[in-house]
Amino acid sequence: FSHLQKKRRAATARRQHLKSAMLQLAVTEIEKEAAAKEVEKQNYLAEHCPPLSLPGSMQELQELCKKLHAKIESVDEERYDTEVKLQKTSKELEDLSQKLFDLRGKFKRPPLRRVRMSADAMLRALLGSKHKVCMDLRANLKQVKKEDTEKEKDLRDVGDWRKNIEEKSGMEGRKKMFEAGE
Q1: pLDDT (tens digit, 9 = 90+) per residue, 65-89?
Q2: What secondary structure does DSSP assign to 66-97, as a single string?
Q3: Percent of the chain with pLDDT over 70
Q4: CA–CA distance, 170 with 147 (Å, rounded to integer)
Q5: What are the domain boundaries of the chain?
Q6: What is the DSSP string of 93-131?
Q7: Which parts of the chain are coiled coil (predicted)?
């Protein structure tokens, strides 16, 4: 029993060691990522925002202000467009995730039952109102007239079977059968 406890302790210690190693690795990765983002930000700012040099005269200062206002307006328009795209995309994402949730889980599929259904009803259920093909199989069969044979005439003439049995019962019935045989 103590052997099992030692194994469990060793497994737990190993698990803890792996967990701490993974956390340390994750921390270093996050730091690297933050540093890379900062470098990317500095490069972007250096490219898009040159250092400001203030001119001495009033007219040049007004020109600079007009340029800055035009740039602010264009950046604001870009920001607005990007914001609208983001809202639209997030809405689509939300709708799709809701559909996925609906399809995946919370609805339980009911147990299927056998249903007697004609071929017409089945096609109507599958195709909806588009169904125009008639699957009446009896309509395609040939019509055949029956020829009256003597056996069928005899069967029709006999009528009720109870009467026939009563007639043939007893000695008279046997006598009739014997006479009919002759």
Answers
A1: 899 899 999 999 999 999 999 999 9
A2: HHHHHHHHHHHHHHHHHHHHHHHHHHHHHHHH
A3: 68
A4: 36
A5: 1-49, 56-106
A6: HHHHHHHHHIIIIISPPPPP------HHHHHHHHHGGG-
A7: 27-106
